[in-house]
Design brief:
Structural class: alpha/beta
Helix content: 25-40%
Distance between the termini: 30 Å
Radius of gyration: 13 Å
Order of helices and strands: EHEHEH
Oligomer: single chain
Strand order of the largest sheet: 1-2-3
């Protein structure tokens, strides 16, 4: 996949995060792309999107650098010098 990780907001102007995930699932070029939903808190709707789509988890907004680094550690393949520093 040309993209390893996509952060997508649950609420978008023309297409919500769920519809974005469903469209991405149909694109063979991105079938191995990791998708993380951003939502205001751990809303029931956001958790349902994760359960029903290609999204792997939901992060609460506002997103912190620490949370972003942690999600990268969990979901990105670590290759050579491009490793993410462990979050403490």
């Amino acid at each position: 996949s040309p993209v390893d990780l996509i952060l997508v907001d649950l609420v978008l102007p023309r297409m919500n995060g769920y519809r974005f995930c469903r469209a991405l699932e149909k694109n063979k070029l991105h079938q191995h792309t990791t998708v993380v939903i951003l939502a205001p808190g751990q809303s029931k709707m956001a958790l349902q999107v994760v359960e029903r789509s290609c999204a792997v988890e939901c992060l609460a907004k506002p997103l912190t650098i620490r949370a972003l680094l942690q999600v990268m550690e969990r979901h990105l393949p670590l290759q050579g010098a491009a490793k993410v520093r462990p979050v403490k």
